[in-house]
User: Fold these one by one.
Assistant:
Number 1:
Amino acid sequence: MLGYIVDALKTLCSVTGILYIVGGALLGVFFGALPGLSGGMVMTLLLPVTFKMDGVLALALFMALHVGSSCGGAIGSILLGIPGTSSSIATTWDGYEFTKRGDPVTPLSVTVTSNLLGIIPGIIIAMFLAKTLADFGVKIGPWDYASMIFCALAMVIGLSGASLVKGFAGVGLAIIVSCVGTDPILSRERFTFGVNGLYSGFNSVNIMLGLFAARIILMEYVRQTKTKDASKIKVSHYRWPGKEIRQNFPNIIISFLIGAFIGFLPGLGGPTSSVVAYTTNRSLAKDKDKWGTGVIGGVWSPEVATKGGIGGAMIPMIALGIPGDVIMVQFMTVMNNHNVNPGPRLMIEKPDMVYMLYTAALVASIFVFIIQALAMPLFPKFISLPYHYLYPAIIVISFLGAYMVKSDYFGILVAVGSCILGLIMDNFDIPQMPFIMTFILAQLFEQNLRYTFIGSTAGLKIFVTSPVSLIFLIVGIGVLVVQTVLPAVKRSKAKKADA
Amino acid sequence: MEKKFFCKDRWLGLGMILVAGFFIWRSLILRPSNLNRDPGPAVYPLLGCGILILCGIILLIKPGPDGKRMKMNADEKKRFWSILAVYLFAILGSWALGVMYTIPICLFIISYMFSKSSKPEMSTKKRLLTTLIYTVIVSAAIYVIYVKILDVTIKNGVLIKMLFR
């Protein structure tokens, strides 16, 4: 393990490595801070570019972007009361109160410090847990794997808070879209309708460019969201929040554990972990009545939980090839672009890539800490940039990226088609997370499902006779049942209370 | 007010059933597998269609309450269709002219549109000039990064090929 980390460090210490990490961290912080945009969007824009990059360094760049963006999201929350990312919504509740009182430095310093306190231990835990999980992953059969994918999708649908029916509609739609091209076992054409561009199926890069870049900018133009002017807010230099750490130590530990655990579960991630950590710590706090009026514990909780989740989310992606969120989907896409399949064999076949991910996260968290600590007085300028110059460039870069995938206009057609599909899904409240997760996992799911039939003489019975498969099925179905029954119970209780 | 029978969820349910019906028909004409016990290439799309039909039926029987739907006022609708037209031009332009010409044209139009909505007080002449300067700078930067550094192959569109054959 140490050897791979040293090798990764050597790569990161090269001129290109430093450029990627610093550039990625800066871009991530910047885009993460801008309300309406996110680090995820810049990652989507850069996905086609990774075809031309060294795979290991591309992952380092993406990790730096991810870490930077997770850390930049709180800037808008604290200075404007507008969260830069959905993970920093809970930071707004107490963080913005400090700015209103004329003290934005305390919450900003806490946010910057939480990069170190949340990310570093999370990555160290991930290094050990992912290895154990991957060892388990290589031993399981295709039926177990198919049940595991079902469980992950059920959790994404069940725990994301969207309507179950519409979540499943997204899954059904993604299965059909993923079937276009050739089938993964016999390589026979399926739903190509004689169109050349469809023979190799829809590329996930084009779909993500349409869904997450072109659609978002289109809606920003339509809605004409006006951002408050932050340029007049005065922010002085970073100060180490030693006193705040001592006072909130149990809060930090609880938040980290919540973040790491929730980050590990598919479909939840930062937005949920930050709110759960906030509410848990508020209920445990002596001054719970003051939370929401500018208590520093209310900034530590969501920030440490969000950053603690970065390591947690990497575990299932690296060890089992199952992404927990859209960001991990993008990491998987980068690997796929370089013909690497994430999953249990990744640690055996491509340990350099795996340890680069961990090392890049550790190095990026230190760089982001330094960059944010030094650049803190410039934060108000970050979020006051003219959007009308940024958005058009994002649109054309996403078109060019879509073109780059196969050097063909068909990519742009798919990206615009995905943008329109995303708008239709928005209109009908169909969540996009189950759609994109299913699309990414579809081929793996089909392969394992069909290998189960081919390899098992027991037929479908194997899904319930194999203990591993049975556990995943029970968990998956359990999540869906609870999600269906709980709202009904709540409604009947409310009716009784009204009566 | 009485709720309309064909609310959005019912339209969605109906649409899903129709889409699933089409793909069931296409799946059933796929050649079966010759591998022993392999259910064949049709089974997976049929699973997707089954999910869609089930969801469609549920939505038809029990549509949900109107959630955060995309409702737009007249100005928003105008902006929506205008930017969508530029997106469609991007497809058509990259097919007919090639991305080399389409990207700067799209960039100019979109930045003009954004500038018009964010700085309405600016005169048309000044707006055209600043948009043009912005387009030239950004297009040049994109060209250097993508074509010169990343070595992206830029193909001409069919019209350009015909004209300069």
Number 2:
Amino acid sequence: MIQVKDFTKKYAGFTAVKNINFEVKPGEIVGFLGPNGAGKSTTMKVLAGYLPPTEGSVKVAGFDVVKDSIEVRRRIGYMPENMPLYTDMRVDEYLRFRARLKGVASKKIKERVEEVKNRCSLKDVERKIIGTLSKGYRQRVGLADAMVHDPELLILDEPTIGLDPHQIRSVRDLIKDLGKHHTILLSTHILSEVEMTCSRVIIINRGKIEASDTVNNLTKLVRGGGAIKIEVQAGSSLAKDKLIALPDVDDVEILTESDWSQIKVFPKNGADIRDTVYGLIRNEGWALRHFNREGASLEDVFVELTQD
Amino acid sequence: MRGFITLLRKELAAYFVSPVAYMVLLACSLVIGFSFWFWVNYFVSNNIKEVTVFYAMYNGFFFWFTLIIMCPILTMRIFSEEFKMGTIEMLMTAPVKEWEVVLAKYFATLLFFAIAWSPAVLNTAWMHFASPEKIQISWGMILLPNLCLLLIGGFYLAIGVFTSVLTQNQIISAILSFAMIFILFCAGFLANGKADQSTQDLIEYFSVMAQMDTYSKGILTTRPIVFYLSGITFFLFLTQRVLLLKRLKA
């Protein structure tokens, strides 16, 4: 659905995105992550056919974003950050205008507008002037606009920014639901949202892609992914020596030492070492009162990959 | 084509929700109403038969003043507001071409302009039906000054649309287009200097007042038509180029 090859984007004297490559297949929900200023919005603007790439080729649904810009725009629903809207139009009027502009057949406009209003819970405000709406409603008008022509690909730049927790939850459910029939590329800073909705994550930092994989695989990459925390009744130095001798154990860290020792065991390359560690404890006959596998969160991955 | 019509409808509707438009309509109908009333009275009491009411109305100070002021006001927000609010990004990521956007916005202002000046024509029609004696209508003298108004107005609006695409500040856009329109308007006065005949002829070509004078007498010449249509095309073409460049060279 999206093919990005050797893509570079420079603004007057400043390189926003440097030589990146990635692909998004039809049906995927891809989370696009990165610190502020990493080049996320720039990349999304290029994908939406708004800005041209400085170098490289960017294709959406097989069409080049510069040469066949109109064809690309027909197939995408783009929701920019800050959601610019015509503040003097009514919600209903705006959505009908956008549907017509995006080439929805005249007979289908009413049906499509009704559907997106229902999906984005805009029924209560359909007669209101957009300028008088709260931030949350405006966001939803933007989302409704992005999907009004039932596009193949949705590009959503921070769709949940400025929403309250209830609204975030409903937008998240909506995105999951949309993902059944659409390809979605979304950027956000709410990492738990990505863990829950996205099938794949692309992390970008300073205009370069740092990682592109499923959430599960990414969390295995960082130190601490799959680490085991135990609390046993044993001498800490003895326990450390025994544990580090185990296969697939990378490092052992003593957290507290007294009668009971709290120890953290790090596996090599995300290997599962629960069985071998428990086997050792049983063989040695240590008393055990805590055994926990700590999964690294996407936040750990994000911080580790994007710190300087 | 469909994009053009959709945008044209939206732009025209946008005029009628803005207070600026109603101020322009009000001011315009006041000026037209007053000058119509004034000249009809003056013509009747002095028994003037040499020129028409339109000639008097469309060649006076009030007419030119209103025309030169209203065009920058009508066009100043047309693109500037989109850039300021960021809605241009929504507009240009919809499947519409730059020229559709430019033409839709231009024709919306031109239609609004025509609506604003329609009282002048309606007054004439009203007078025709209201007067007890049947008046001999000279269509040329009624239609030609209005055609000339549409051409001049269309040209000035195209300049306004062009300056609006240059900046996101409405005031700067209005000042720029006012300056350009005013300089073009004043260029006609240079003909009174001591320049040689060929230079004078050239300057006459630019003189809006001379053109309006000719048309108001019911004389159709093709020069202004060619001049204004090419001027409109030129400025709309520049607008389309700037709109495209702003996106591609960002």
